[in-house]
Amino acid sequence: MEFMWQQQEEKQAMKDFLNERGIGSRFFRYLRQNGGQILINDHLTTGQTNVVRNDQVRVRLPVERADPRVAISHQPLTILAEDGNWLVINKPAGLTTVPGPANRVDTVVNRVKGHLINTGAQDQVPHIITRLDRFTSGIVLIAKHRLAQNLVQTQTLDKVYLAIVTGRLEQAHDLIDAPLGRRPNEFKQSVLETGKSAQTEYWLERYLPDLDASLVRVKILTGRAHQIRAHFAYLGHPLLGDELYQGPLNQGIKRQALHASRLSFFDPFTKAINQYEAELPSDFQNLLV
User: Fold this and answer.
1) Are 228 and 258 in contact (CB under 8 A)?
2) pTM (2 decimals)?
3) Is 32 in a helix, a strand, or coil?
4) What is the DSSP letter of 231?
5) What is the largest CA-CA distance in the chain?
């Protein structure tokens, strides 16, 4: 894959020029060590030079070969959008995002690898940007090459979730600001003074009297594991179906009622705001009828 930029300034060090475009010293080393190329006006350069006005700088990324240790899955993906840099999917509840001890053959990563191979993609290494818990449904953003991953990880993504929590919330809008960490020998997250800073903002969408539950729209201002689930449990309003955080299991949903519904971010390649929305799955919709 190749990217080209034209220099607008009178004179600038090549490394400074590349750094402004998201290619810092670490990524520069990656290029040099893996067969990437940098060209000025179609001439190879090591980067130890200057670029002057109207110079054309091309960066050729090394091909990212498939990891043979990662199994290929041809199970379906619900694709919301795709171009040469990004793949956006609507992940179903129950599908693990990355391979692990419990499942190494059919996860989001395995399915995306199968999709890339089936479509003849040159780069065949999925870079997961927004990882979801196994039983959380919704939008997962995947970078299709390392430069896209590098550029998007420098910004804060605008992520919106929908959740159904037990009971009636006292505040229609609030910010939960409570540090999260794990107690020894526990898998779940708890609010602890020694935990890492965690902030969750929510808005009450509507109360569901038949369930004695509340539909909430949620934004996370930090990215801690289980953050939404742990914070609402801390408030005394665990998510419906969330067994780990003592949510009720008899309300018509067999997993935590949490869905990553919207995502937007600045696309550094097109200079536009990319916005996506994922339809609610049927088990979640049935609770809202």
Assistant:
1) yes
2) 0.93
3) helix
4) H
5) 69
Residues marked active site are found at 133
Ranges of residues in the chain whose predicted pLDDT is under 50: none
Q: Is residue 67 part of a domain?
A: yes
Instruction: Identify the pLDDT of residue 114.
Output: 97
Q: What is the distance between the alpha carbons of residues 130 and 97, in angstroms, rounded to a whole number? A: 9
Is the same domain home to 138 and 177?
no
pLDDT attached to residue 22: 85
Residue 267: inside a domain: no
Q: Which two tokens stand for residue 34?
A: 């893996």
What CATH number does residue 125 fall under? 3.30.2350.10
Q: How many residues does the chain have?
A: 289
Domain assignment of residue 19, given as a range: 2-60
C-alpha 37/C-alpha 34 separation (Å) is 9
d(CA 78, CA 123): 20
| Spatial distance between the Cα atoms of 202 and 167, rounded to a whole number of angstroms | 15
For residue 216, the cross-strand partners are 163, 204
For residue 215, the model assigns a pLDDT of 98
Question: How many Cα atoms sit within 13 Å of 210 on the Cβ side?
Answer: 6
Rounded to whole angstroms, the Cα distance separating 127 from 70 reads: 13
CB atoms within 10 A of CB 130: 19
Task: Express the helix, strand and coil content of the chain in percent, nearest 5 each.
Answer: 20, 35, 50
